[in-house]
Amino acid sequence: MEPDVSIETSSVIRIAVLPIGTVPPSLLREYQTMLLRQQTIPQSAISSFYTEHQKSPFAHQPWDTGSLRFKFILGGAPPSPWEDFQSNRKILAVIGICHCPSSPDLDSVIDQFNSACKSYASALVHRCFAFCPGDSQLEDGSKKGGNLKLFPPADTQTQEMHLQTMMQDIAASLLMEFEKWVLKAESAGTILKTPLDSQASLNSEEVLKAKKRRLARSQKTIGDYCLLAGSPVDASAHYATSQELARLTGDYFWFAGALEGGVCALLLDRMGQKDPAMEEEVRYRYNSVIVHYRKSFIQDNAQRVSPLSFELEATLKLARFLCRRELAKEVVELLTSAADGAKSLIDASDRLILFVEIARLYGTIGYQRKAAFFSRQIAQLYLQQENRLAAISAMQVLAMTTKAYRVQSRTSTSEHSLPNKQIGSSHVDGGKMHHHSVVSLFESQWSSLQMVVLREILLSAVRAGDPLAAWSAAARLLRSYYPLITPAGQNGLASALSNSADRLPSGTRCADPSLPFIRLYSFPLHPSQMDIVKRNPEREDWWAGSAPSGPFIYTPFSKGESNDSSKQDLIWVVGEPVQVLVELANPCGFDLRVDSIYLSVHSGNFDAFPVSVNLPTNSSKVITLSGIPTSVGPVTIPGCMVHCFGVVTEHLFKDVDNLLLGATQGLVLSDPFRCCGSAKLRNVSFPNISVVPPLPLLVPHVGGGDGAIILYEGKNQDCVISVACETLKAALPLKPGSEVTIPVTLKAWQLGLVDPDPAAGKSAFGSMMRHFKDGSSPAVVIHYAGSLSSSGDPSTVGSSVPPGRRLVVPLQICVLQGLSFVKARLLSMEIPAHVGENLPMPVHVDSQSTERAIGSESKLDRLVKIDPFRGSWGLRFLELELSNPTDVVFDISVSVQLENPSSADNDSADQDAIEYGYPKTRIDRDCSARVLIPLEHFKLPILDGSFFMKDIQADGPAGSRNSSFSEKNAKAELNASIKNLISRIKVRWQSGRNSSGELNIKDAIQAALQASVMDVLLPDPLTFGFRLVRNGLEPAKLDSTNELNSSVQSSASKGPVLAHEMTPMEVLVRNNTKDLIKMSLSITCRDVAGENCVEGAKATVLWAGILSGITIEIPPLQEIKHSFSLYFLVPGEYTLVAAALIDDANDILRARARTHSPDEPIFCCGPPYNVRVIGTA
């Protein structure tokens, strides 16, 4: 069989091209290329070289449209045993190629050429082309003449024109020789034999049969020469005669040959035109050709020679003629039939050629997998030959099948791949691929077949002595199919990689990566002193609204800021080192040594630093890869460069991302990272990385303080931070190397969680204190930047303004649990007033926490407010329970800030309050204590209606519309009063001599007061009090509350009441509202048993005046008095109580009394007033 056969092959003239003498390979390829351009010579171009010696047998020669076709065979070919059967198999001309500078002796050249032509007995024309002759060679060659044709030195175009002329001469010579041969064959005849009958014994019967067949075979051969001469009409006539004669003699083999030649003549006559009718004619005739080739099969000759190859060639010719997608089904049937016949071929080379042609035709119609299958058959035939050249051929054939089996090398796809910049940008878009792309890359159902293909490539590469191809095949096999390979097999592939690398030069690169698997882990944030912030030149606080330069969605500095998570920007600075975290996995059963690994950067503005890694068996490791940006511009990092197993390869992040995506969808055998025990990693978005020019850099260090500072909750501590370039406005602009020291006051307010002051970040330099919510130490944050570019137009500056920086200085402070707040609750204590008793002296707390006694009675009632009209009945205290879990002792002091009456006309807020403290409470280690805080002095002086707007609206919507207070203002005023109350209470602690602080009890106090805030803050509508009138004198008029308090306490301090004497008294009633109150007043005196002692048969107290049913009207914010006298018969303890029934109460009074019905009476009862009576019964 012959390769690359078609129906038109019968009309092609074969010419052997032989190098004569020494011809440089590059020049030989150049001359051959020039010859290939002369494969078709029009008959109209050879008329000047053609001489008709006698009448031409080619009566219908198409001189205007016909042509002669050549096939140049470099190096020639051995003669075929089937030359008589198909004349196109003969070498009909020999062309010698000589390079005159390499072969100066032309005589020797001619001798060598004549000697080479003797091997081609069928050659009719001989020419030797001598290129680039010298002057002497030109002169000598012109004398020799003959078959030597000299090509003087000239440009390529001139030489091609010269060569074209020579080929026209050869075509004319061949045409004349064909005429001679045909005339000779018609007159004298010739004996034509094939291997089918040449081996038989020539007995008399066979000789007689051969004589009968000679004429048919002669006509068929004449038809062949007519085709070679370019005269299809004459060929058709001779083929038709041959078919008739061969049919009569039963020579089916030659009949099939004549029929096949007739089809070729038909196509040549139609000038390559195809129409359905002609296709059907060709299909019908070639099916007949195949049938008759099959009929010529003789079982006796099957072991030595068979016409099967011609039958298969005819099948391939018909398949090639019909080869297009519309007729794919018919072509597949023909190729399947041809593949079945391969089993009966005797010669292995025939099977090789058959499989080559079948693979080509399958590839032409798009059946890549079938083409790959037969290519593997070709490779196996090559591998059976056990020689290096065959192994190289096998390797090349298998390389063509890798695309169909999805195991191709990256080298074969590099021409069709995206540019490097686009490869990197695929990560910027998320690193995702569509489903069909993943399927095309990974098809686990092909695993076994793919492994076989790669193993065959590895074997052929080893035999061919190609270490790089062997390394590539072993790398693809190990990387893609390690789960299906035993540990012993994995070690064998590792050895193959190492052995191949030993035969390669150092630093050899391969497009196919091996181990390890590498995926992008994260882009770490900049260090605290290198964080980059986008700069807004239009604002003084240019850092406002900015987020760190890292690719993370949440950072401690981006709270409340909008963030686009689809794409993140990462800014690097020229000359400053950066880091990228990648994860490596070794899922195989051997220890892996990575000699070096570094980031692969295609943008050319980044210097990467290599590191070496050791990966044990079935292990993964996260490593840090670093480098330094070298110039401004975008940076693209598609993957890593890895030097492993002696070869440098590039590992792309997107390949591993696609691999992991295929693993999740079941398209890939295994996830290498999960095999190594690595946790599932979320998809890391690839940021847009840009490099900016160098920026200023500050380096901080903490100095002073206590070194490693340990604070308890609420403790104040001074510490100093030394920053090496920036901060105070007076020092700006800071020069290189300058230093600024900033004192910082720290307050350990609460363990682990502190609300930062939002206003702290509004300073001109952007410094602020930050406390992180994970319980870590606080930090000082400083924003700084270099000078703006000096552009004239401010609108154009913003686009080119360099970014600024954020410096985070963590303060290494350990906040320990100090005093532990347990709970807070509100207590109500009923303590009746005792005449003649004095209250404890309070303690005044100044700003230095020093103690001093207060002797002034005007200040005494500031701490425990004894209202002269109600005594101290119903005092309310806030109880705080504290625990000391530490190993130190704490002293607790409670202080209250009261209004300073002396600064009533002063607008300064700092002078409006005086702070008073109570005696200290000591809490030992592992002990608890309770602290009482009186709340009486926080009551408001006036019962105002603004606090009851909500209740008034519920009772009367119409009245609420006319009210001057809105519900919103009422709530705001009430909340302000609560906050004011809480802010005036301070609970401080002191431990030792230098450690002090304050407890944060605001939330606890607010929670304790929330339910009873009305009782604590709001006064009663009416307050009652009693006083004695000594010696029957009328007390002086009291113009102020202070005078009233002083008078009552002075009279009370004169001593007890005497029995059996008439004691004058007065009851004082005060209206604490802004409305007139009408009421009915009653006075009751009770003994120690609680019995009424002024009424009944057992009364022990006589009275003068009115004690019940006293109707009184009290103006707003005024007071009235009612006089009466008591005569005590029995000494002892008595209690005076005043009560009033309010008539026509308004909504304010009902809201304060919390009544449920508008008809419900409002009853106000004053506090008990104790009277001590002495004397004898």
From TrEMBL:
Extent of Polar residues compositional bias: 410-425
Protein known as: Trafficking protein particle complex II-specific subunit 120 homolog
Superkingdom classification of source: Eukaryota
Range of residues in the leader sequence: none
Domain Trs120/TRAPPC9 fourth Ig-like: residue ranges: 1046-1173
GO cellular component: trans-Golgi network
Alphabetical keyword list: Golgi apparatus
Pfam families: Ig_TRAPPC9-Trs120_1st (PF26254), Ig_TRAPPC9-Trs120_3rd (PF26282), Ig_TRAPPC9-Trs120_4th (PF26283), TPR_TRAPPC9-Trs120 (PF26251), TRAPPC9-Trs120 (PF08626)
Trs120/TRAPPC9 N-terminal domain: residues covered: 9-197, 203-269
PANTHER family per UniProt: TRAFFICKING PROTEIN PARTICLE COMPLEX SUBUNIT 9 (PTHR21512)
Domain named Trs120/TRAPPC9 first Ig-like: residues: 546-647
Ranges for domain Trs120/TRAPPC9 TPR region: 330-499
Record has Transferase as a keyword: no
Residue ranges of every copy of the Trs120/TRAPPC9 third Ig-like domain listed in the record: 859-1017
Region (Disordered): 410-429
